[in-house]
Amino acid sequence: MTARRVLIWRHGRTEWNAAGRIQGQTDVPLDETGVQQALQAAPYLAAEEPDAIVSSDLQRAFRTAEALAALTGLPISVDPRLRETGFGPWQGLSHAELAERWPAEYAEWKRGETPEVPGIERPAEVVARMRDALADALGAVDGTLVVVCHGGAARRAVQALTGWSDEVAAQLAALGNCRWTELRLSSTRGWRLHAHNVGPLTGAASNDEPSTAADAEPAADDELIKASERG
Protein backbone atom coordinates (compact mmCIF):
# COMPACT_ATOMS: atom_id res chain seq x y z
CA MET A 1 0.00 0.00 0.00
CA THR A 2 1.05 3.58 -0.50
CA ALA A 3 -0.71 6.91 -0.16
CA ARG A 4 -0.97 8.99 -3.29
CA ARG A 5 -1.75 12.25 -1.52
CA VAL A 6 -0.61 13.79 1.77
CA LEU A 7 -2.24 16.70 3.61
CA ILE A 8 0.10 18.15 6.25
CA TRP A 9 -2.10 20.00 8.77
CA ARG A 10 -0.71 22.35 11.39
CA HIS A 11 -2.43 22.42 14.79
CA GLY A 12 -4.69 25.21 16.03
CA ARG A 13 -3.52 28.22 17.98
CA THR A 14 -2.14 28.10 21.52
CA GLU A 15 -1.58 30.86 24.05
CA TRP A 16 2.13 30.64 23.31
CA ASN A 17 1.47 31.10 19.59
CA ALA A 18 -0.56 34.21 20.35
CA ALA A 19 2.18 35.53 22.64
CA GLY A 20 4.98 34.76 20.16
CA ARG A 21 6.74 32.26 22.44
CA ILE A 22 8.84 29.41 21.11
CA GLN A 23 6.99 26.17 21.80
CA GLY A 24 9.27 23.50 20.42
CA GLN A 25 8.38 20.25 22.13
CA THR A 26 6.72 21.83 25.17
CA ASP A 27 3.25 20.28 25.45
CA VAL A 28 1.16 23.46 25.27
CA PRO A 29 -2.63 23.00 24.85
CA LEU A 30 -4.85 24.69 22.30
CA ASP A 31 -6.42 27.94 23.46
CA GLU A 32 -10.10 28.72 22.85
CA THR A 33 -9.33 30.18 19.43
CA GLY A 34 -7.30 27.10 18.53
CA VAL A 35 -10.19 24.80 19.42
CA GLN A 36 -12.52 26.84 17.20
CA GLN A 37 -9.97 26.82 14.39
CA ALA A 38 -9.81 23.02 14.49
CA LEU A 39 -13.59 22.68 14.51
CA GLN A 40 -13.98 25.09 11.59
CA ALA A 41 -11.17 23.63 9.48
CA ALA A 42 -12.04 19.96 10.04
CA PRO A 43 -15.05 19.86 7.66
CA TYR A 44 -12.87 21.14 4.81
CA LEU A 45 -10.37 18.35 5.38
CA ALA A 46 -13.14 15.79 5.83
CA ALA A 47 -14.40 16.80 2.39
CA GLU A 48 -11.04 15.65 0.99
CA GLU A 49 -12.06 12.11 2.01
CA PRO A 50 -8.94 11.11 3.93
CA ASP A 51 -8.16 7.44 4.38
CA ALA A 52 -5.95 7.76 7.47
CA ILE A 53 -4.88 10.27 10.12
CA VAL A 54 -1.52 10.30 11.89
CA SER A 55 -0.64 12.89 14.53
CA SER A 56 2.15 14.14 16.71
CA ASP A 57 1.65 13.03 20.30
CA LEU A 58 1.76 16.63 21.60
CA GLN A 59 -1.72 17.63 22.71
CA ARG A 60 -2.07 20.69 20.48
CA ALA A 61 -1.72 18.43 17.44
CA PHE A 62 -3.70 15.49 18.81
CA ARG A 63 -6.66 17.68 19.86
CA THR A 64 -6.67 19.20 16.39
CA ALA A 65 -6.66 15.71 14.86
CA GLU A 66 -9.61 14.75 17.07
CA ALA A 67 -11.79 17.35 15.34
CA LEU A 68 -11.22 15.59 12.01
CA ALA A 69 -11.54 12.09 13.48
CA ALA A 70 -14.94 13.02 14.92
CA LEU A 71 -16.23 13.81 11.43
CA THR A 72 -14.61 10.95 9.52
CA GLY A 73 -14.75 8.14 12.04
CA LEU A 74 -11.09 7.41 11.35
CA PRO A 75 -8.76 6.36 14.17
CA ILE A 76 -5.77 8.56 14.98
CA SER A 77 -2.36 6.96 14.82
CA VAL A 78 0.09 8.73 17.15
CA ASP A 79 3.78 9.12 16.32
CA PRO A 80 6.17 11.10 18.57
CA ARG A 81 8.53 11.49 15.61
CA LEU A 82 6.10 14.09 14.24
CA ARG A 83 6.83 16.47 17.12
CA GLU A 84 8.02 20.00 16.56
CA THR A 85 11.73 20.81 16.38
CA GLY A 86 13.24 20.64 19.85
CA PHE A 87 14.44 24.05 21.00
CA GLY A 88 15.91 23.15 24.38
CA PRO A 89 16.57 26.23 26.55
CA TRP A 90 14.77 28.53 24.09
CA GLN A 91 11.40 26.90 24.64
CA GLY A 92 8.97 29.24 26.39
CA LEU A 93 10.92 32.39 25.51
CA SER A 94 9.65 35.29 23.41
CA HIS A 95 11.62 36.78 20.55
CA ALA A 96 12.46 39.80 22.70
CA GLU A 97 13.79 37.53 25.45
CA LEU A 98 15.87 35.55 22.96
CA ALA A 99 17.36 38.75 21.55
CA GLU A 100 18.30 39.86 25.08
CA ARG A 101 19.62 36.56 26.47
CA TRP A 102 21.13 35.01 23.33
CA PRO A 103 21.93 37.99 21.05
CA ALA A 104 24.55 36.36 18.80
CA GLU A 105 22.69 33.07 18.50
CA TYR A 106 19.37 34.81 17.93
CA ALA A 107 20.93 36.88 15.14
CA GLU A 108 22.14 33.65 13.52
CA TRP A 109 18.64 32.19 13.75
CA LYS A 110 17.13 35.31 12.19
CA ARG A 111 19.49 34.82 9.25
CA GLY A 112 18.10 31.32 8.75
CA GLU A 113 21.04 29.53 10.37
CA THR A 114 20.89 26.99 13.20
CA PRO A 115 22.70 28.31 16.27
CA GLU A 116 25.11 26.08 18.16
CA VAL A 117 23.03 25.85 21.32
CA PRO A 118 22.85 22.51 23.20
CA GLY A 119 19.33 21.12 22.98
CA ILE A 120 18.35 22.72 19.66
CA GLU A 121 17.76 20.10 16.97
CA ARG A 122 19.56 20.42 13.66
CA PRO A 123 17.37 20.63 10.52
CA ALA A 124 18.84 17.36 9.20
CA GLU A 125 17.81 15.59 12.41
CA VAL A 126 14.21 16.77 12.07
CA VAL A 127 14.10 15.87 8.37
CA ALA A 128 15.39 12.38 9.18
CA ARG A 129 12.78 11.61 11.81
CA MET A 130 9.99 13.11 9.70
CA ARG A 131 11.12 10.97 6.75
CA ASP A 132 11.00 7.82 8.88
CA ALA A 133 7.59 8.68 10.36
CA LEU A 134 6.12 9.50 6.97
CA ALA A 135 7.52 6.35 5.38
CA ASP A 136 5.81 4.21 8.02
CA ALA A 137 2.51 6.10 7.76
CA LEU A 138 2.52 6.15 3.95
CA GLY A 139 3.24 2.44 3.76
CA ALA A 140 0.13 1.64 5.79
CA VAL A 141 -2.52 3.41 3.71
CA ASP A 142 -3.86 3.72 0.19
CA GLY A 143 -5.23 7.07 -0.95
CA THR A 144 -5.05 10.21 1.18
CA LEU A 145 -3.09 10.60 4.43
CA VAL A 146 -3.58 13.52 6.83
CA VAL A 147 -0.52 14.31 8.94
CA VAL A 148 -1.23 16.58 11.93
CA CYS A 149 1.89 18.26 13.24
CA HIS A 150 3.58 21.61 13.82
CA GLY A 151 4.83 24.67 11.94
CA GLY A 152 8.53 23.88 11.76
CA ALA A 153 7.95 20.12 11.53
CA ALA A 154 5.54 20.64 8.62
CA ARG A 155 8.24 22.42 6.64
CA ARG A 156 10.65 19.53 7.32
CA ALA A 157 7.97 17.01 6.34
CA VAL A 158 7.65 18.70 2.95
CA GLN A 159 11.44 18.69 2.66
CA ALA A 160 11.59 15.01 3.60
CA LEU A 161 9.11 14.03 0.88
CA THR A 162 10.38 16.29 -1.91
CA GLY A 163 14.10 16.05 -1.22
CA TRP A 164 14.47 19.84 -1.26
CA SER A 165 17.63 21.39 0.12
CA ASP A 166 17.54 23.58 3.24
CA GLU A 167 17.86 26.63 0.98
CA VAL A 168 14.83 25.69 -1.12
CA ALA A 169 12.76 24.64 1.91
CA ALA A 170 13.46 28.04 3.53
CA GLN A 171 11.49 29.70 0.72
CA LEU A 172 8.29 27.91 1.78
CA ALA A 173 6.19 30.28 3.88
CA ALA A 174 5.30 29.09 7.38
CA LEU A 175 1.92 27.42 7.77
CA GLY A 176 -0.64 29.42 9.70
CA ASN A 177 -2.44 27.71 12.56
CA CYS A 178 -4.88 25.05 11.32
CA ARG A 179 -3.81 25.47 7.71
CA TRP A 180 -2.38 22.73 5.54
CA THR A 181 -0.10 21.77 2.67
CA GLU A 182 -1.04 19.26 -0.03
CA LEU A 183 1.47 17.03 -1.81
CA ARG A 184 0.71 14.44 -4.48
CA LEU A 185 2.79 11.54 -5.68
CA SER A 186 3.71 11.56 -9.36
CA SER A 187 4.74 8.29 -10.99
CA THR A 188 7.53 10.13 -12.83
CA ARG A 189 8.50 13.04 -10.58
CA GLY A 190 7.92 11.81 -7.05
CA TRP A 191 6.24 13.98 -4.44
CA ARG A 192 5.16 17.40 -5.73
CA LEU A 193 3.72 20.42 -3.93
CA HIS A 194 0.15 21.08 -5.08
CA ALA A 195 -1.15 23.60 -2.51
CA HIS A 196 0.14 25.47 0.53
CA ASN A 197 -1.41 27.41 3.44
CA VAL A 198 -4.87 26.13 2.56
CA GLY A 199 -7.75 26.75 4.95
CA PRO A 200 -11.10 28.48 5.53
CA LEU A 201 -11.33 32.11 4.43
CA THR A 202 -13.66 33.21 7.24
CA GLY A 203 -14.11 32.60 10.96
CA ALA A 204 -11.45 31.73 13.55
CA ALA A 205 -9.69 29.40 11.10
CA SER A 206 -9.19 32.17 8.52
CA ASN A 207 -5.99 32.84 10.48
CA ASP A 208 -4.70 36.03 8.88
CA GLU A 209 -2.55 37.06 11.86
CA PRO A 210 1.13 36.56 11.01
CA SER A 211 2.19 36.29 14.66
CA THR A 212 0.60 32.82 14.79
CA ALA A 213 2.51 31.54 11.79
CA ALA A 214 5.65 30.03 13.32
CA ASP A 215 6.31 27.44 16.01
CA ALA A 216 10.00 26.95 15.53
CA GLU A 217 11.33 29.42 13.03
CA PRO A 218 12.12 33.14 13.28
CA ALA A 219 9.24 35.48 12.57
CA ALA A 220 9.93 38.11 9.95
CA ASP A 221 10.55 41.63 11.24
CA ASP A 222 7.22 42.89 9.88
CA GLU A 223 5.43 40.04 11.67
CA LEU A 224 7.02 41.00 14.99
CA ILE A 225 6.07 44.64 14.46
CA LYS A 226 2.44 43.74 13.79
CA ALA A 227 2.38 41.49 16.85
CA SER A 228 3.71 44.27 19.07
CA GLU A 229 1.16 46.72 17.68
CA ARG A 230 -1.63 44.36 18.79
CA GLY A 231 -0.17 44.23 22.30
UniProtKB/TrEMBL annotation:
The active site is at H11 (tele-phosphohistidine intermediate), E84 (proton donor/acceptor). SUPFAM superfamilies: Phosphoglycerate mutase-like. Residues 201-231 are annotated as: Disordered. Substrate binds at R10, H11, G12, R13, T14, E15, W16, N17, R60. It holds the Pfam family His_Phos_1. One of its GO terms (cellular component) is cytoplasm. Residues 208-217 have a biased composition (Low complexity). GO terms for molecular function: phosphatase activity. CDD domains: HP_PGM_like. It comes from the Bacteria. This is Fructose-2,6-bisphosphatase. It comes from Cryptosporangium arvum DSM 44712.
